[in-house]
Amino acid sequence: MAAALGPGTANIPGRDILRYATTTAILAGAVGLLTGIAGAAAAWLVVMHRFPGRALFTWALALPLAMPAFAVAYGYADLLDVAGPLRSTLRDLTGRDLPFEIRSTGGAILVLSAAFYPYVYLAMRAAFLNLPGAILDAATLLGCRGPAIIFRVALPLTRPALGAGVALAVMETLADYGAVHFLSVQTLTTGVVRAWSVFGSTASAARFALPLLAAAAVLLWIERAGRRGRTHETGKTRWRGPEATPLGRPAGLAAAAFCLFLLSAGLLVPAGWLVANLWDQAPDWRRLAAAARNSVGLAAAGALFTVALATLLALGSERRPLAVRVASLGYATPGAVMAIGLLAPAGVIWSLFPGSGTALALVVLVMAYAARLMAAALEPIDAGFARISPSLTQAARLLGRGELASALAVRLPLASGSLLTAGLIVLVDILKELPATLVLRPFNFDTLAVIASNYALDERLGQAGPPSLMILFLSLPAVIWLTGRISSTTPTARREIRP
Question: What's the pLDDT score for residue 472?
């Protein structure tokens, strides 16, 4: 496209935008379908059945959330490049060329599906755990067994959670830049960055961004509707969750193999290959250490700023619900769109304060993180405040404390766990974030994601491994803690999970 348009072209033709949009729609639709099937199936197995390794898979299936999608792409690309001679041998033996190529739309679909299925898995696992056991028992007594109980009872009851999980996976697909750019797949998000960085056209970047924003708004509405429908009222009767039934040996081994396949595809295979390649590398540890400090510093600053703003919005949500909904739109907006949208006001400030380049760039970058991830912080904070009895706040007010003093003395301490959850969610997302950082970071200010991307685009995939793995190891403790916290908030959390 660069050759066709030339360096001086300001606007990208509409047919190219249509082509990018078509690829994006195919990618999002396929990833949504695959993540919906894989995540729901894995959640059903670990909740409803007992099989070898169930206790491990219950929390381990969420661990691919710690692995950036671009790192998954690097691992598979390097693995298949090394496997090139094997592919040639198979071609010679069979007389046919293998149809699959990782650097293609099909490859991007598989990579993003492996990276994002945990969004559906976590949503559906919570929904299945919340299913009233009496309903399932009644369906069984009426002769509904096997696949029929899944499609006629369980899925209709958990459809809002399924829609929410798939919407989150599709939103992440629309926002992804590092993986699709490396795999040479032209999506609207890569078009936004290309229009701005290569052609210098903010008008063309806006034309790419508008379809993304429209799709993001629809997906956010679906995800919000799914959150409203996650719980089921059980009245005043004693709640009883579903009972896990043991699988026979062949079926149990098949269930364990399926769960292991998902975990391997999203984490073990790409991360294992990158770890194996470490022995052949001589990383610049000083540069990586500086990038790690930058990544952790930005993530910590972004998490603190985002949680602080989200807390203020949550405290005033009853009076200003519209402000909360507007602030939540950022989560469905790709980071590249958010970053380029902030360039114009940042340019005005830079012209007024020309000596504040680096500091101002970091402030703008943290603001972009906050705008992008506000909804991710608002949701757990809102849930934490909702669990606090209004009588506690009313008692504080009767004792003479004002609204702010009541919040500081009662609501914030009681919701401290939710605040920590929100902070860790934002922290992990910022550690993996790439497009906004690429656009807004100061010169000579690298993060681990930026270094990994630069190495990968230069086809130095072995050297892209260490920064990618450092992101994984920095994110993994937070993801493990969050997975445990999500499990502990379900009504069946105190039940023993037996293999």
Answer: 94
Ramachandran sector of residue 400 (left: φ over 0; alpha: ψ -120 to 50; beta: rest)? left
Task: Tell me 410's DSSP state.
Answer: I
Residue in the structure block whose two tokens are 């739309």? 105
* Range 107-110 contact pairs with CB under 8 angstroms and sequence separation of 24 or more: 107/73, 107/76, 107/183, 108/27, 108/73, 108/179, 108/180, 108/183, 108/185, 109/27, 109/30, 109/31, 109/34, 110/34, 110/265
Residue closest to 335 by CA, chosen among 194, 174, 164: 174
Whether residue 287 sits in one domain with residue 330: yes
Residues 254 and 287 in one domain: no
What does the pLDDT read at residue 305? 94
Query: 414 and 449: one domain?
Result: yes
Contact of 474 with 295, CB cutoff 8 Å: yes
User: ∠ CA 466-284-424 to the nearest 5 degrees?
Assistant: 45
Confidence (pTM): 0.83
> 431 lies in which domain range?
283-457
- Tell me which residues of the chain have a pLDDT lower than 50: 1-9, 229-238, 491-499
Q: What whole-number distance in Å separates Cα of residue 260 and Cα of residue 60?
A: 9
The pLDDT of residue 321 is 57
Q: State how far the Cα of 226 lies from the Cα of 167, in Å rounded to an integer.
A: 9
Distance CA(325)–CA(378), nearest Å, equals 10
Helices (H), 433-460: 435-440, 448-457
- Number of domains forming the structure of the chain: 2
